[in-house]
Write a structure and sequence with these properties.
GMP Synthetase, Chain A, domain 3; 3-stranded antiparallel beta sheet; two-stranded antiparallel ribbon; 3 helices
């Protein structure tokens, strides 16, 4: 996949790919206008929505209604290390599901490709090229 990253002004940074534009900005406290999610927020949104996709697919494949089903993602912040050491995703499932179905749903959620990349991260290479 190829993405183009542009700087439309202020602290905004946009990613263009596959016909989409994902807009980001920084919070006002970081000099931005808070006009869009920060890249860090989108990182967690990616984790949550990917996990949600696997939960949805699991439930739909078994004919389990998804009305009222949701996921809640929460993080903790380490002030010393300046990073998030823990992410918790809670799946809110309908009442009455057997324990084995609930456990299988959690296993399906763990198959998220974003989570897999966190478990075994890719090597990120950054290099500069002159225009």
């Amino acid at each position: 996949m190829e993405m183009r990253i542009d700087f439309p002004g202020g602290k905004r940074v946009d990613a263009s790919f596959k016909g989409f534009v994902v807009r980001t900005d920084q919070p006002e406290a970081s000099g931005g206008a808070n006009s869009a999610p920060s890249p860090f927020d989108l990182f967690f949104a990616s984790l949550g929505t990917c996990t949600g996709h696997y939960v949805l697919a699991f439930l739909q494949a078994r004919g389990i209604p998804v009305d009222g089903v949701s996921l809640a993602l929460s993080t903790t912040w380490d002030e010393v290390a300046h990073r998030v050491p823990n992410v918790e995703i809670r799946i809110r499932l309908p009442q009455g599901l057997p324990d084995e179905t609930t456990e299988a749903c959690v296993r399906a959620a763990r198959k998220c490709a974003v989570t897999a990349h966190l478990d075994s991260p890719p090597i990120v290479t950054v290099r500069a090229e002159r225009a």
